[in-house]
Fold this protein.
Amino acid sequence: MDVTSEQDKLVETTEDIKNGKDVQKGKYMTFKSGNEYYGLEIQYVIEIIQLQAITVIPETDDYIKGIINLRGKVIPVIDVRLRFKQESFEYNDRTCIIVINVKSTVVGLIVESIAEVVEIKEENILPPPKIGRTEKVQNKYVYGIGKVGDSVKLLLDPDKLLNDVELSVIEQVNELNDEEE
Amino acid sequence: MAEEFNTEGMLDIYLFENQQLLEQLQEIVLEQKDADCFDEDSINEIFRTMHTIKGSSGIMMFDNITAVSHKLEDVFYYLRESNPDNVPHVKLVEHVLEVEDFISNELEKIRNGDTPDGDSTKIIAKLDKFLDEIKKGPAEKDSDSIPENVHEEPKQFYIAPVATSASRFFKIYITFFPETEMANVHAYKTVYALKEIAEDLLYSPENIISDETSSDIILQEGFRLLLQAQSTEEEIRELIGVGYDIKQVDIYECKAEEFLRGFDFVEINEAQIDLDSTVEDIESRKQEAQQEEGEEAENEKKPEKKPESKPIAPGDFVIKSREPGKQKKLARDKAKEKTSFISVSVSKMDQLMELIGELVISESVVLQNPDLKVPGLNLNNFNKAAVQMSKISTDLQNVIMSMRMVPLTNTFQKMNRIVFDVSRKLGKDIELRMIGEQTEVDKNIIEHISDPLMHLVRNSVDHGIESAEERIDSGKPEKGKVILSARTEAGKVWISVEDDGKGLDREKILAKARSQGLLDENKPEEAYTDKEVYQLITLPGFSTNEQVTEYSGRGVGMDVVVQNIQSIGGTLDIESTPGVGSIMSLKIPLTLAIIDGIVMETGTSSFVMETGVIKQFVRVREDMMIHEPNGDEYVMIRGECYPVIRLGDWYGLKNYQTDVENGIMIILEVEDKKICLFVDKLVGEQEIVVKPIPSYIKKVKGLSGCTQLGDGSIALILDPGGLID
């Protein structure tokens, strides 16, 4: 019996791989920012790199720290703590950059430290509490709360993380300008 | 099933080839637009071009293109055969250009994924009328026969013919078992196999790939091919092979003339061909074929007897025109091109360009590596190797740059067309001279200058050149002249549009500017230099022509020109002498991708500025500074006063030099405006590869991009235009 179920599982995974979908589903990259642990669906994550020299771009929002050179590709980096309107922190050797790709925008997220990759089943994901002491600002990036054992991870919506409503307007303008050029 | 063959690839090739054909066509036509008539070569060339377009459009089933090109082909066929001397040449040129425009438009639609639905009937009617007109002299009765024949002419698949004396001609007849499925696919397989040896290959039904019903036709009537090759019958049989689906393959050798008659001939014989015939029968078939040749020869004689009076039947001449001798030249040219050119997609070129950019940077990362700066290292061998490597990478860079270079010929050719169109519409007689059209410019740049140049040329023809009467009155030759010239100088391309028209009218411009409220109220009009006045016409909403014409005068011309030119880092210079003419000169960079830059530092940030705009570096003393109460600063350098921008202030940077005596002033000049930029220190000069700032970060004024420095860090590229505004 065991063998068959093993095989079933194997068949399932290979089929998943064949279909090119959802092998990554339910897996979350978690990281620590402030006292909380956050989770990002792993399909968005390209790679994790060490903190490197950041070129500051003047006249941008404070959470956009600047641009980095990722093997010849120039990508913007944002500070997650500042993005959540939390206090800034000193960068140290545990500080990492998670490079994510959201709708083909590649952005680096500066986080205090990487935790682990966890699997969270759908039934363990709760909608964020509407009332309570959770800060409103933070709430809009968090689309669910995942339970892993005793701890909880705040699951982030990467699209909202990168783009405020007002920011996306600016982006559109930028895109327009780019097209004109 | 037909979709299994990738018709998309065919479509791309179709579009690409026909675009090129049209460009060639336009070139030929415009070259001879001022002559009294087309010479024989051109007529043949236009005829052939139209024929090819017609053929390929027929295969792709773009019926309107087929119909129009067919009609023009008719016209040129008539010109070629009858050499009428009463052809209104200019009208003919217009007709050809009209057809070319129509087809271009349709191709554009196809390229955008739309259906080519342009109405061809109008143009066809016009061409018919034209054809009638020129025919009236020699043969009046022809006109009726033309429309009838329009769709009878067989569409033929056409594969580059190479005729040599060793060529043999074959008729091949393939029958499939009636139960065969997808006979069209099998037929295509055969065609594909034969292409290897074919010098020329025709087959019927011709649309086996795109039309699934052809499968039934093939089953019922068999699949017929006409093959010109140097192979023997056995070799052909081997190539076709005998699959389980092919019932019978009949191959007959025939003569060239017969071959050229195409399928008409085969069709006549169809009844005679016995589906059950065996290989042994072929011998007797051959005899039959020879007999038929005899008949054929007789048939051929008839039209020869009275070529003048014979109604022109488009169905015939297509085949007649394909005499092996005539095609020879064309085919050879094509083969030559194939060996010396390949077309590469632009995205691949861009990728290569990017990679070479990376290579150049990583080269400097290695060569300027801090590890090498340890004192006491013996680097002799390293340095030798490094020099060698730098040489190669410089060469590599030059090669890729030259690969991206495209001559301006095509762009200039387009202007020729515009001058022709506009001058005819306006009733002005204008000659366009082109100088240095071979000048090469980066492909990216060509795309950007085509529109501005068009505006300038239109302006010259429309506003610059006077009407014929005015010209005679002022003692100028009646024929106006526009000179389009290009040259490279000091890493820039200079393109100028010069006309011998009336020149710019200072008073008119000033009056207009006044009424538009474009003048500085505190400045007397006399204080404007000529140059300043002329620059006024580049302001948005300015147009001096009293009458808005079809071609210019909406007041959107010049400011768009200037904007477009500025966006690629170029400038527009206007010179004019009243009554003598004006010269509009564009100065544009040769390339956008790699530029020479000066690297500088302010605070902890590095910036790069394009070398071209930097006039001087100056150290200044505090007593040279002038401070305004509102915080603005100026600096007096050798009697000239420049406004000062402190880069650190401008961007709110930290820890930058505030004492002018410790930093350095950079004098920048953009379009006659000069400013001083104050930075902490200069780092050096470097070739930089321009990269865009990620679009996620909103646009910052004064920054045009970023680049990687020798140490791998990123510097921001300053846009002098943005700083000066």
